[in-house]
Design goal:
Largest sheet: 6 strands, parallel
Strand content: under 5%
Distance between the termini: 72 Å
Number of helices: 25
CATH architecture of the largest domain: Up-down Bundle
Radius of gyration: 30 Å
GO cellular component, one term: endomembrane system
Strand order of the largest sheet: 3-2-1-4-5-6
GO molecular function, one term: antiporter activity
Low-confidence stretches: 418-423, 601-606
Protein name: RCK N-terminal domain-containing protein
Membrane topology: Multi-pass membrane protein
Subcellular location: Endomembrane system
Number of strands: 6
CATH topology of the largest domain: Na+/H+ antiporter like fold
Length: about 625
């Protein structure tokens, strides 16, 4: 009706105003805009600013579809196969163990362990989290085992961490959770009727799952054959409007088909993106859908905030906090333990566990269906939704806490490895020490090891050196380099390796902060030893020199000088002129670096100034 259209228009206007206010404000405080959208939803719901919540929620769910579609675009088929280990190994174990743990918390019926704990701690009402049957416990456990694809993938995308191993493990688990929703949605109506036996339930679930998986396979095969051809035809028309419309149709159409097969619509969106990832249209498709994805995802977070029942939260806040803490702790412990079993390091496992410790948007679907079918009591349903929403709101903080905790664990592991492996490496009291043995360090090692007629002592030999690195793959010495595992910027590690008075110290770390800290430690331990380092820009060079570096080389500038020289020679410029220009430009950079050092204002010299002859 006209009134509904007007309400939607006002709701849209309200949301756009909130977006304009929230995003810049939270970015200014270096906080995730997700939190701003959630708070906006709570405030707007309490003030009655959202008039048509149902239609707005339906529209906002498109944001999740576009997010999953974009994630699919980032994955090749080869990477999808690599994710299978995490999806069907780690994901299966996480869902199963979490479901069992949360279900056990609700058992036995009418006298649950969780109820007794809350009564003991907070004198809670005995009926608050009590359940009547085992079925209810299974529904609650399964619903809480799921995590939020929208929150987690948005954070991984913002931080650029999806391509990492920890990002792949997280994505694999989320994909399995999408698949796990299918049997859960199949079993709920069966539980509601009560007309089943254990013998009849499993055949029904198996038949429904096989039917759904067969349909999904047919959809994947058909998509591979048809999508590329359809995009070719539309691209030949050279109509940007038609291309954008096809992108939207692909997302929504595939989502609808997977929904009809019994799977989640988000799985369909992800599958559509994965099918297009191998085509030449991936970049343009991603650019076209990104504006829709950003706005609609923000709308989803706003509507998530409207799900909080503030009156119930205020009345039952001790119980809410206890349930929230239990949810996060149990899921973190389970996922961390599983991560170690599938090859993740402890820091990676901890990060994955904390990032997936919240409840997810599929919990809303499961609890809503359970409530509609009478499988869950109404107040318990509302309480669980509050816990899930609050856990989702904590996701940015959990992610940041996980990052810091992983760094602490990694540092602790490094400190425990001060006992260097006993290997056949010549003991030299005064070697050149290379700290960080990436590609730059390896090239430097070849410089030092090459015999020269005017080498030390006048003999035809190279300079003795010893390299240190924290990557076990580099320490394997398969290429024959004398490299040890350890943090070479720590004097204790150098002493353990037999280094008494190094001839020179070369800091080859790529991280800005780690390089500066390494120079500071080494300068304190070896006041008279020359220290050389690699710098990313003039500002970094200034920091290194202030930390005690004898000299630092601008690696990007050297690359640019080399590329410029190759270009000019290719254009026919005489080699002598190229060498002359290269020399005076390097001198200009040295002068700028010296100016920065004298003025101690590295921020003013972070960029190279225009060169004037």
């Amino acid at each position: 009706s006209l009134e509904t259209i007007n309400d939607l228009g006002l709701d849209t206007l309200t949301f756009l105003v909130a977006t304009v206010l929230v995003v810049p404000s939270f970015k200014a405080f270096k906080a995730s805009p997700i939190l701003g959208f959630l708070l906006s939803g709570v405030v707007m719901n309490q003030l009655g600013l959202i008039r048509n919540v149902t239609d707005i929620k339906a529209l906002s769910e498109l944001g999740i579809l576009f997010l999953l579609f974009e994630m699919g675009l980032e994955l090749s088929l080869a990477r999808l196969k690599a994710l299978a280990k995490y999806a069907f190994g780690m994901g299966f174990a996480q869902v199963l163990l979490s479901t069992v743990a949360f279900a056990a918390f609700e058992l036995p019926p009418n006298g649950a362990l969780g109820t007794r704990l809350l009564e003991f701690l907070f004198h809670s009402r005995p009926d608050l989290v009590n359940i009547r049957t085992v079925d209810e416990a299974v529904v609650i456990g399964a619903g809480l085992s799921l995590s939020s694809s929208a929150f987690v993938l948005q954070l991984l995308s913002e931080k650029g961490e999806l391509p990492t191993r920890f990002g792949s493990a997280t994505l694999g688990i989320l994909l399995f959770q999408d698949i796990a929703v299918v049997p859960l949605l199949v079993i709920l109506p069966i539980l509601e009727t009560g007309n089943f036996s254990q013998e009849s339930l499993w055949p029904v679930m198996a038949a429904e799952s096989l039917k759904a998986l067969g349909g999904l396979g047919a959809l994947s095969l058909g998509g591979q054959l048809l999508l590329r051809r359809i995009f070719e035809v539309v691209a030949d028309a050279r109509s940007s409007e038609a291309f954008v419309a096809l992108c939207l149709l692909t997302v929504t159409g595939t989502s609808l088909l997977t929904q009809k097969l019994g799977f989640s619509d988000t799985l369909g969106a992800f599958l559509a993106g994965a099918l297009l990832a191998e085509t030449n249209y991936r970049t343009q498709v991603e650019a076209d859908i990104r504006p829709f994805r950003g706005l609609l995802l923000g709308l989803f977070f706003v509507t998530t905030g409207t799900s909080i029942d503030l009156q119930l939260l205020i009345r039952e806040w001790p119980n809410v906090l206890a349930l929230l803490g239990g949810l996060i702790a149990i899921k973190t412990l389970i996922t961390t333990a599983i991560g170690k079993k599938v090859g993740l390091s402890l820091p990676e496992s901890v990060r994955t566990g904390l990032l997936l410790s919240q409840g997810g948007e599929f919990a809303f679907v499961v609890f809503a269906l359970a409530n509609r079918l009478g499988v869950l009591p109404l107040e318990l349903n509302r309480l669980l939704i509050i816990v899930v929403v609050l856990s989702m709101a904590l996701t940015p903080f959990l992610n940041e806490f996980g990052r810091k905790l992983a760094n602490i664990i990694e540092l602790k592991i490094q400190q425990d490895s001060t006992e260097i492996k006993k290997v056949e490496i010549p003991k030299v009291a005064e070697p050149v020490v290379i700290v960080g043995f990436g590609q730059t360090g390896q090239v430097l090692a070849n410089f030092l090891s090459t015999p020269l007629a005017n080498g030390p002592g006048g003999d035809v030999e190279g300079w003795p050196y010893l390299a240190f690195d924290l990557d076990p793959n580099r320490v394997s010495r398969t290429l024959g380099f004398p490299v040890l595992y350890g943090d070479g910027s720590r004097p204790l590690v150098l002493q353990t390796a037999g280094v008494v008075k190094p001839k020179a110290l070369m800091v080859m770390y790529t991280g800005r902060g780690s390089a500066v800290r390494a120079v500071e430690r080494l300068r304190l331990a070896f006041p008279e030893t020359p220290i050389f380092a690699r710098a990313q820009d003039l500002g970094h060079l200034l920091e290194l020199k202030q930390a005690g570096a004898t000299d630092a080389i601008l690696e990007n500038a050297e690359t640019s000088l080399e590329l410029g020289s190759v270009l000019l020679r290719g254009l026919g410029v005489m080699p002598d002129d190229v060498n002359f220009l290269r020399r005076i430009m390097r001198e200009s950079l040295d002068v700028q670096a010296q100016e920065a050092l004298e003025k101690k204002a590295g921020g003013e010299f972070a960029w190279v100034k225009p060169f004037q002859v």
